[in-house]
Specification:
The protein is of the alpha/beta class. The protein folds into five domains: 37 residues; 62 residues; 169 residues, 2-Layer Sandwich (Nucleotidyltransferase, domain 5); 68 residues, SH3 type barrels; 81 residues, no CATH class. Strand 12 and strand 13 form a beta hairpin. Helix 4 crosses helix 6, helix 5 packs across helix 6 and helix 15 runs parallel beside helix 17. It starts with a helix and ends in a 5-residue tail after the last helix.
């Protein structure tokens, strides 16, 4: 039966707007028979259904035996499990005329008990692992990136049939990390598992209902529809139901994350991990008489094809910036800059597993920030948009709050510059920031203060010398007894007279 709101809409289209059945079919997508039924419906009473006894008392002496057959079926392949008809035939064959129950009674009990037994994993019976299916879960591991220690997470994707596993390392565990990790693994192996088993993470499941169903996030539904896999979920507090990936979480940590890894770029290290996982598959399977690599070929044969269209797994949000063109995420703990141009306005941002991108009105990236994780206050400041803006209005520099945000060496340096040169110098600092980053530009400013130079050309020359690994000379300090050079104004008339007198006459 349709929802009453849709039924009402169909009747309004017909009786009030004068639409015919074909037009209503095009508008609602419902078939003509259903539309006609609700147009002609006159009796709107709700029919109470008769309650039937579902205890099946006539089957009482046979229930234990039926339950044993169904429990034993969990060890067999799907195609060789009992159907209701097979259970009925076995009972008739075994008990003959003394068995007086109807097929309908057996089928009713079979339907209920099959669901109960197959959803009850307290017996820890070995599950049938089907080629092409996978299990996913996160683990915890520390690592160093550019010398900084992170308490990270890593997404594991295990294929129980072959015992093959892959994993990707992240700074946290959220929707973006999950989707990016799965997408990367899908693309690396060249296909998508037919079914993926998950626990019940809040990034996917918003609520577990009484009947075992789940309310899933729209983002996960969109992700699973795009890649066409079925998402399956364990019973609450039943992590053993995906024992393959639970074991793989520990295996990956012990064998590939000990000692604590150190690297320069997380992206490069994750690429190396995929290769290591392939190399690890050369070993023998723990139970089957073959290698994991050979068994995984059967997994890959069952994989779904990758979609032709790339899926953007970023999260998008709109934030309000403060007077300095900065905004906050994670309950105000993490601060990111945009540009003074976007002060006190709403900005669209793009969030990935590792980065945060403020976007302009054309949805182009303004700046790129490394995404923060953790429950401590952190700030990311990208100075280039601010320096560019200040260079256009250098006279207002000291009257903006941005000036107070600049590092002290840069404030001192700009304080020594003439008003006429401040704009040019700010443009040069912005250029140095583009070349090697803001920290290196500040380093150049520190050296410039030592050499007591304030012009943009000397600043550029100094910056290039510092960043070309040339020998750095200490600044020369002039003593007080060095006489000042007198300014000389040349008299060009004398040169003209000399040139005139030396002309060759013809």
């Amino acid at each position: 039966m349709l929802e009453m709101t849709e039924i009402q809409n169909i009747r309004e289209l017909y009786f009030e707007e004068g639409k015919n059945i074909s037009e209503i079919q095009n508008l609602t997508g419902r078939d003509r028979k259903t539309i006609r039924m609700y147009i002609n419906k006159e009796d709107w009473n709700i029919r109470e259904t008769e309650k039937h006894d579902k205890s099946f008392p006539k089957l009482e002496q046979y229930k234990t035996e039926i339950d044993e057959w169904l429990t034993e079926d969990k060890k067999a392949k799907k195609k060789q499990r009992h159907t209701a008809k097979r259970v009925f035939d076995r009972l008739v064959s075994k008990y003959g005329d003394s068995f007086t129950c109807s097929y309908r009674t057996v089928a009713g009990y079979f339907s209920i008990r099959k669901k109960e037994i197959y959803n009850n994993n307290k017996g820890y019976l070995p599950l049938e692992h089907i080629a092409g299916e996978a299990q996913a879960d996160f683990g915890e591991a520390e690592y160093y990136e550019n010398g900084k220690l992170y308490s990270g997470k890593y997404l594991n994707l295990s294929f129980p049939y072959s015992n093959k596993g892959y994993f990707q390392l992240f700074k946290g565990e959220n929707q973006e990390c999950l989707f990016e990790g799965l997408k990367t693994i899908f693309e690396y192996i060249g296909g998508v598992p037919t079914r993926i088993w998950f626990d019940n993470p809040s990034t996917i499941v918003t609520k577990i209902l009484k009947n075992g169903e789940r309310n899933l996030t729209n983002a996960f539904l969109r992700f699973s529809e795009h890649y066409r896999f079925n998402g399956a979920f364990c019973n609450a507090n039943s992590g053993h139901e995906k024992g393959s990936v639970e074991g793989k979480v520990g295996y990956h940590r012990r064998n590939m994350l000990v000692p604590v890894p150190r690297f320069s770029r997380l992206t490069d290290f994750n690429n190396e991990l995929l290769i290591k996982c392939d190399e690890d598959a050369e070993r023998d399977h723990y139970r089957k008489d073959t290698t994991i690599k050979e068994l995984f070929e059967q997994d890959t044969a069952e994989l779904l094809q990758l979609p032709k269209t790339q899926l953007d797994v970023s999260k998008y949000s709109t934030v309000k910036t403060n007077n300095y063109g900065r905004f906050y995420l994670n309950n105000g703990l993490h601060e990111y800059s945009v540009s003074p141009k976007y002060a006190s306005t709403h900005v669209r941002i793009k969030i990935t597993a590792n980065n945060v991108f403020p976007l302009d009105d054309s949805l182009r990236e303004i700046v790129k920030h490394e995404r923060f994780y953790g429950e401590n206050k952190q700030q990311s400041m990208k100075w280039l948009p601010y320096l560019t803006q200040l260079s256009r209005s250098p006279g207002a520099l000291k009257y903006t709050g941005i000036y107070q945000m600049l590092p002290e060496p840069m404030q001192n340096f700009l304080g020594k510059c003439d008003k006429s040169r401040k704009g040019t110098v700010l443009k040069m600092i912005a250029s140095l920031t583009t070349m090697n980053g803001f920290e290196q530009a500040v380093k150049t400013i520190n050296h410039a203060l030592e050499y007591e130079i304030t012009d943009s050309d000397s600043l550029l020359s100094l910056h290039k010398r510092i960043h070309t690994n040339s020998d750095e000379l200490p600044p020369v300090k002039l003593t007080d007894n060095i006489p000042e050079m007198l300014s000389v104004i040349p008299d060009f008339n004398q040169y003209d007279q000399k040139l005139e007198s030396s002309r060759v006459r013809i």
